[in-house]
Amino acid sequence: xxxxxxxxxxxxxxxxxxxxxxxxxxxxxxxxxxxxxxxxxxxxxxxxxxxxxxxxxxxxxxxxxxxxxxxxxxxxxxxxxxxxxxxxxxxxxxxxxxxxxxxxxxxxxxxxxxxxxxxxxxxxxxxxxxxxxxxxxxxxxxxxxxxxxxxxxxxxxxxxxxxxxxxxxxxxxxxxxxxxxxxxxxxxxxxxxxxxxxxxxxxxxxxxxxxxxxxxxxxxxxxxxxxxxxxxxxxxxxxxxxxxxxxxxxxxxxxxxxxxxxxxxxxxxxxxxxxxxxxxxxxxxxxxxxxxxxxxxxxxxxxxxxxxxxxxxxxxxxxxxxxxxxxxxxxxxxxxxxxxxxxxxxxxxxxxxxxxxxxxxxxx
Length: 364
Hints:
By secondary structure, the chain is mainly alpha-helical. It is 73% helix and 1% strand.
């Protein structure tokens, strides 16, 4: 089924591009000052501060900040300094989540370079320090992630300073943080279940990724806009956000198995080694024959899984029809998002239509 969003927008007016440069103008000086504060405390803190900064400034789609920005526009607000600082806080929170996620998933790469725990482990070895370099890297990465979490809170405080309803905006930011950590825990637990249900998998997708990527950033932008609250608008943003957010996670699951590491910045075998029970894997287990199911079960959660075994699993996922089924799910979510946007004014409606495609079709 072709999405109603298929031909929306133009490359010259990508809503992501509007946000990137002003966001960098907020993040770079903030991170420079934050890192200097740590180095002034003790010069030995410079490497871990640098690793945290490098992750934030090394790229990324800036998708979550874009949803903050356009949530403000949808509410009728002017996306000035407060909105950009709130967007920057969300991006710092995302960096925190990535650092910890890479530790939990034992991922080696992030954005085409060593994950923070790998980089800090290598630094330990290069310095000739005593002890286990890998374990040092894990501990340093956990603390680097914690520091990013604190920095996110500090930047958010700057965003809401003087805001008429700072408490309301803070409540949305708190919901965002609680949901992503709850979803991350449920994802860890999901990998250990023998037969998770479709409902359990979709719940994880919604909490771990959907709400945190789309819904809460949108509502945060509206909350920081200082426009009068509009329950109907918030309901539309919520419906759109949940639909696009789940589509985003479904696409992420596909890229986790079929993506090009040169494009995604991470390997295409890690999800299998970690035993992630994604909707894609669940569909393949439902649709494949006995030998196909056996190949998936044998490889899922095998920390030593090699590329040849991974390719056999990919072939099962393709030939069983699971990949096509998930692609249809993505299109259905995009159609739901399109319907939810009908009451929104321009330019927010067109921008959010384009962002839906950016979220759900990256690498497709």
